[in-house]
Design a protein that fits this description.
The protein is α+β, with helices and mostly antiparallel strands and 167 residues long. It has helices spanning 4-22, 30-37, 42-56, 77-80, 133-156, and strands spanning 94-102, 107-115, 118-127. 8% of the residues are buried.
């Protein structure tokens, strides 16, 4: 992609394709056509592919690339995270339970938030069929964290007993 003639040829071909896809006039610019069709310019895609090649297999290998591991090389959960036991001397105001599941028909995740031992919030989410069970589990955790923050913020505020129009 260092030669301008190669770049111009590739750009010309993609421009003609984008004109057909966008049903646009020939006077539309290349950049506008890429935006209209939602297609990344080929030059950028090729540069990204070249960078990925050099990072993974080329001379510029370094440890910055976080390559996906095969499932056999995943660290065991007991070794990957640090677990703390529930302390009896502490009083917890909120307990959160999450779960995600996948079967042949649907992928779902759920959250249950207990405040002072009582169920205060129950959330259910349906995910796209192509999502994995891990993604459903992670979605439940993220949603639980967001909701727990909302719940914590709402419980900190004192209730407003005064009406704005009454004195």
């Amino acid at each position: 992609m260092h030669r301008k003639s190669n770049t111009a040829k590739i750009r010309r071909v993609q421009r003609l394709t984008n004109i057909k896809l966008a049903k646009a006039y020939r006077t539309a610019s290349y950049e506008a056509l890429c935006m209209l069709t939602g297609i990344t310019p080929t030059r950028i895609e090729l540069e990204n592919m070249a960078k990925l090649y050099h990072i993974t297999r080329g001379k510029n290998r370094n440890d910055l690339y976080d390559a996906p591991l095969t499932y056999r090389r995943w660290p065991h959960q007991a070794k990957a995270i640090e677990l703390h036991n529930k302390r009896d001397d502490m009083q917890y105001k909120m307990e959160i339970y999450t779960d995600g599941s996948k079967n042949e028909k649907v992928v779902r995740s759920g959250v249950a938030i207990l405040a002072d031992g009582n169920l205060s919030h129950q959330l259910r989410y349906k995910l796209a069929e192509k999502c994995s069970n891990n993604q459903a589990e992670q979605r439940a955790i993220v949603k639980a964290m967001k909701k727990s923050k909302e719940v914590a913020n709402n419980t900190k505020k004192p209730p407003d007993c005064s009406h704005p129009h009454r004195k």
